[in-house]
Design goal:
mainly alpha; 3 helices; 0% strand
């Protein structure tokens, strides 16, 4: 699972960088739907870093809301997966 999140976040970061470059050159762009989907597939942190570092999509309300929401949802998902069996129940209270 760690490798998945690492790869998807690097991909999201690179997509933001590529799209920013394409926007500057006024060439074919990556769909907004695609970069938001990548964030919801687990690349929220990479997408957020891409937004901040490349100063890309930072003025779009949709991105300012949906990318942090994707991060929050994945944090909740990760806590859920490690808190309940069969994933180990790490955060479960043991008596």
């Amino acid at each position: 699972m760690i490798y998945y999140y690492l790869i998807i976040n690097v991909l999201a970061f690179l997509l933001y960088g590529m799209d920013k470059g394409k926007a500057k050159r006024n060439t074919w762009r990556i769909r907004e739907r695609t970069v938001i989907l990548i964030a919801f597939l687990g690349g929220g942190i990479g997408a957020y870093l891409g937004m901040m570092i490349f100063h890309h999509k930072t003025k779009h309300t949709r991105f300012r809301i949906l990318v942090p929401l994707a991060i929050i949802l994945h944090i909740i998902l990760i806590f859920y997966l490690i808190s309940f069996p069969p994933f180990g129940g790490f955060f479960r209270i043991r008596i």
